[in-house]
Amino acid sequence: MIEIRDVHKQFVAHTGGGLFKRGAKRVVHAVQGLSLQAADGRITGLLGANGAGKTTTLRMLAGLFPPDAGHIACDGIVVRDAPLKALARMGILGDAHGLYPRLSARENIAYYGRLQGMDADTANARAETLARLLDMQAILDRRADGFSQGERMKTALARALVHDPANIVLDEPTNGLDVLATRALREALRWLRSPEGGAKCIVFSTHIMQEVEQLCDEVVIVSHGRSVACGSVPELLELAGEARFEDAFVKLAFPQEVAA
Ligand SMILES: Nc1ncnc2c1ncn2[C@@H]1O[C@H](COP(=O)(O)OP(=O)(O)OP(=O)(O)O)[C@@H](O)[C@H]1O
C-alpha cells in the first residue's frame, strides 16, 4: 500500500543568462498539494499533462529526494525516515532504464537480485520466472546493448520485480513502446494485480487516457502539481458530467481553461 499525503516540492531553476552572465533564479512549484492512496491488488494511475508533477512525485516516492512538506509511506514505512526499508518493498521502473550494456538481460536482472540480498541460484531462477511472465526468453541471454526500446523496458521491469516487491511503481512505462509491447505490458500488470500474481499495489504515471481507461481501478488526476480529483473512470465521468474520458479529464484538470 502506498500513501502520499499533501506533498509539496519546489525547485530553484535558472533562467536566461549566457556564457559570461548569470541567469535569474526562478522558483518552480513542481508539486504543491498532491495526495494519493494506492491499495493492494489495485492499479492506480497518476494522470496529468506534461509538467504536471508526476515524475517529481514518483521520484520522492522512490526516495531520490525528500519532499519539502507532506507524508510519503509504503506499507506504513515513511520513505524519508527509512528509505532502504521502504525501497525493499518497492519495484521501481523509472523514466531512464539504465541497463548495463555489457551484461545480458539475465545478468542485469540477477545482478539486481544479488544487490537485494538474494543468492545466485535464487536470483537466476527468478530471472527465468520473470522472463516467462514478460515473454522475453528469446533475449534473456543477449547482451543489453542493441536492445530495442521494448526489450529494454522488459529487462528493466524484470529487474525492478526481481525481489518480488509488494508494490510496483512505474513512470510512464509505455513511453516509446509499440502496440504489441504496450499490450504485453498491460497483460503483465493485470496479472500482477490479480491474486495469483500476488495482488500487488501498482502505481503508474501517464498522460495517455486510453491507458488509464483500460488499466486503472483508481485514477488520480494531477494538474499544476496538485491532485484535483480521484476515483474510478466511471466515477470521474460522473463527477465531470461527461461521456468521454478525455473531456472529463480536461474539465477536471483545467477548469479555468474550459470556462474561458
Ligand atoms: N530538477 C528540477 N529543477 C527545476 N525544475 C524541475 C526539476 N524537476 C522538475 N522540474 C519542473 O517541475 C515541473 C513538474 O515536472 P515533472 O517532471 O514532475 O512533470 P511530469 O508530470 O512528470 O511531466 P511529463 O509528463 O512531461 O514528464 C515541471 O515544470 C518541471 O520543469
TrEMBL record:
Superkingdom of this protein's organism: Bacteria
Keyword annotations from UniProtKB, A to Z: ATP-binding, Cell membrane, Membrane, Nodulation, Nucleotide-binding, Transport
GO terms of molecular function: ATP binding
Family annotation (SUPFAM superfamilies): P-loop containing nucleoside triphosphate hydrolases (SSF52540)
Every ABC transporter domain range: 2-249
Keyword Endoplasmic reticulum: no
Annotated Pfam families: ABC_tran
Family: Belongs to the ABC transporter superfamily.
Protein name per Swiss-Prot or TrEMBL: ATP-binding cassette domain-containing protein
Organism: Pelomonas caseinilytica
